[in-house]
Amino acid sequence: MTHFFNKSTRNVGKIKNNNKTKKMNKLLQLKILQIFDYLKIKQVDKELSMEPAKCNNRDERK
Question: Could you name the domain of life of the organism this protein comes from (predicted)?
Fold first, then answer.
């Protein structure tokens, strides 16, 4: 993080690359979150299909 505050010309390329990697990291994080959401939904479906309905299922999902 220190090279953000350093105004030398050598670090300009680093900052540009860092912005690219930040965008890539954001995209990766979004993909990972989507995958986890999908897995959570699958897990909930499994639990619902395996277990008989209980009263406390509603409270656990909140």
Answer: Eukaryota
Residues spanned by the domain of 40:
2-61
- Going from the C-alpha of 11 to that of each of 8, 20, 23, 48, 50, the distances in angstroms are 6, 15, 19, 54, 57
Q: How confident is the prediction for the chain on average, in pLDDT?
A: 71
What SS3 class is residue 7? Answer: coil
Q: How much is the pTM?
A: 0.41
Residue 59 C-alpha from the chain's centroid: 25
d(CA 54, CA 60): 11
